[in-house]
Amino acid sequence: MKNNLCAAAIGFGVMAFCPASTAQQADAVDRLVKEFSPTTLTKEQQRKELEWFRNAAKPFIGKEIKVVSETLDVHAYESDVLAKAFYELTGIHVVHEQTGEDDLVKKIETQARTGIHLYDAYVNDSDLIGWHYRSGKTVNLTDFMAKEGKSVTSPTLDLKDFIGISFTTGPDGKVYQLPDQQFANLYWYRKDWFDRPDLQSKFKSIYGYKLDVPVNWSAYEDIAEFFTVHVKELDGKKVYGHMDYGRKDPSLGWRFSDAWLSMAGAGDTGIPFGNPVDDWGIRVEGCAPVGASVQRGGDMNGAAAVYSVNKFMEWLNKYAPPDAKNMDFGTAGPVPGQGQIAQQIFWYLAFTASMTRPGLPVTNADGTPKWRVAPSPHGPYWRAGMKVGYQDVGSWTLMKGTPLANMKAAWLYGQFVTSKSVSLKKTLVGLTPIRESDIQSQAMTDAAPKLGGLVEFYRSPARKSWTPTGTNVPDYANMAPLWWMHIGAAIRGEVPVQTALNNMAEQTDSMLAQLQKHGRSKCAPKLNTKRTEQFWHAKGKAPVPKLVNEKPPGETQSYEESIKRSW
Question: What distance separates the 2 farthest-apart alpha carbons in the chain?
Fold first, then answer.
């Protein structure tokens, strides 16, 4: 009767979402088993998992929910394909919006601050885990799955299979977010150019060692100079030894907060983010942030941080295309695919899908890439045992105050788009793997030759040294903008680098002080008393004093060695 009325409403031009009949839902299972192939499940296991979703969703048939995520290829696939499949299977209509990362963070912060119900779920970066844990505004998924969400929690969810689950877990051991997509920033280079005997011979005659994957920033700089200054042109095109972006824009902030300082060697050893000083330069005692400035024991404005920003500016000015200074994350992303860039020290694997399209100057006729990705080189302040790079882990997040029925329906959708029934197919489309079982699958082995090292990296021991922003950052939404505002000022020549980082560290300390006044969590900030730089240097850990020589000899290694290396 309901379906007849729904069809009649549509016939009269009335907007309506008509839930599928039981027979249609059964047909949906058959169709989705065929569509979402390959999968690591057997056909029978896949059928049972999909049938579980269909049955668990029965109380919510006809409901509409709103979710929002960043604008990435993988989320476009969810919005365009998986949301429709979920509706066909469950009768729950999903409005899956996409927006920029900065706007996404503002939306979730607004809902938390005002209590206004904007969305039923968010796919936001695990970089916010420190805020999610401390704010008291985010649903603790561990308790939710055991209590009010138990009836809508899949028995085949298999949290241990998620390679990023540790990044979405708070200091209390509870899971606050469910990983949805994951990608690292790695070193990208034109392997076809690096393998040319004439270029290898010329490089060795100038620099005295082999042209290969750089281990340290000294080698990266030499290679950048080599292609820009000495090679100059290949295949009839001007070539550049480096690519980056410098526009004063929120994405410039990600460029630095996404572990650039720690790649240079700021912070301390310890995975996932350095202890007691993390990759942002924030010192913690226990789980309480106690300062970002060197005077309070932090490293946000220390020697390694200053070095890292200076190198960023030097390379951008000397070795990147002139237009790069005015580019942002989105406009700079496709540039290496145009065939004029020799290497890029900081390249997001999220661009892999766009860099494997037929007809690009960086793709062979058989579809294999002329480029490779490898573990990133590190700066002179880096020590063994430190993180080496950044991994983005976009994750499903539920906010308190969301109507329970909506929350349950949204939780079902979040589990569906990350389920083993669809995750491998989604990984092959978006190339942002989240499950160990998918990474180790035969389908990924088959795809590997066309993915330029993505599969090899995720199967390597190096993967564990690439981590997101950790639990030390207590208010990501308000602290993250400090990076692009202050460092952007230095890049534009408005202030010296040291001044810019001093201002950023001081403002971060001020924010920590405000959070300390209002904090109720045992992990709330507790600012250290200011001390001299020498006091902190004497402790033998971060912050460390300026090195006498910030350019040690360049060192390279083969691609095969770089992938096998355990950092």
Answer: 82
- Confidence bin at 1 (pLDDT 50/70/90): very low
Of 127-141, 159-173, 353-367, which range is least confident?
A: 353-367
Q: What is the reported pTM?
A: 0.92
What's the whole-number average pLDDT of the chain?
93
CATH architecture of 17-176+392-463: 3-Layer(aba) Sandwich (3.40)
Residue ranges covered by each domain of the chain? 17-176+392-463, 184-243+329-388
Grade residue 323 by pLDDT with cuts at 50, 70 and 90: very high
Q: Which of 35, 464, 63 is nearest to 273 (CA)?
A: 464
Span 464-473, average pLDDT: 94
Of the CA atoms within 13 Å of residue 366, those in its CB half-sphere come to 5
Whether 134 contacts 474, CB under 8 Å: yes
Alpha-carbon distance of 431 to 444, in angstroms, equals: 10
CB 558 within 8 A of CB 212: yes
Name residues whose C-beta falls within 8 Å of residue 560's C-beta, 6 or more positions apart in sequence.
none
H/E stretch holding 331: helix 329-332
Residue 552: cis peptide before it, omega within 30 degrees of 0 = no
Q: How far is CA 46 from CA 42, 52, 90, 135, in A?
A: 6, 10, 16, 38
- CA dist., res. 445 & res. 534, Å (int): 52
What DSSP string runs through 506-551? HHHHHHHHHHHHH--STTS--PPPP--HHHHHTTTSSS-PPPS-S-
Give dist(CA 176, CA 132) in Å, integer. Answer: 7
In the numeric block, the tokens 């060197």 are attached to 294
In terms of C-beta density within 10 A (0-12 exposed, 13-18 middle, 19 or more buried), how is residue 7 classed?
exposed
Instruction: Tell whether the model's pLDDT for residue 212 goes beyond 70.
Output: yes
For 172, list phi and psi in degrees, rounded to 5: -85, 0
What does the pLDDT read at residue 357?
87
Q: What is the mean pLDDT of residues 276-284?
A: 97
Q: How far apart are CA 206 and CA 222, in angstroms?
A: 10
Contact 211, 223 (CB under 8 A): yes
Query: Quick check: 453 and 188 in contact, CB under 8 A?
Result: no
Q: Give pLDDT tens digits for 487-521.
A: 999 999 999 999 999 999 999 999 999 999 987 77
- Cβ neighbours of 464 (radius 10 Å): 16
Contact 501, 264 (CB under 8 A): no
Strands (E), 229-331: 233-234, 237-238, 283-285, 288-291
Q: Please give the C-alpha separations between residue 388 and each of 2, 262, 426, 562, in angstroms, as whole numbers.
A: 57, 7, 27, 13
Q: How far apart are CA 338 and CA 238, in angstroms?
A: 11
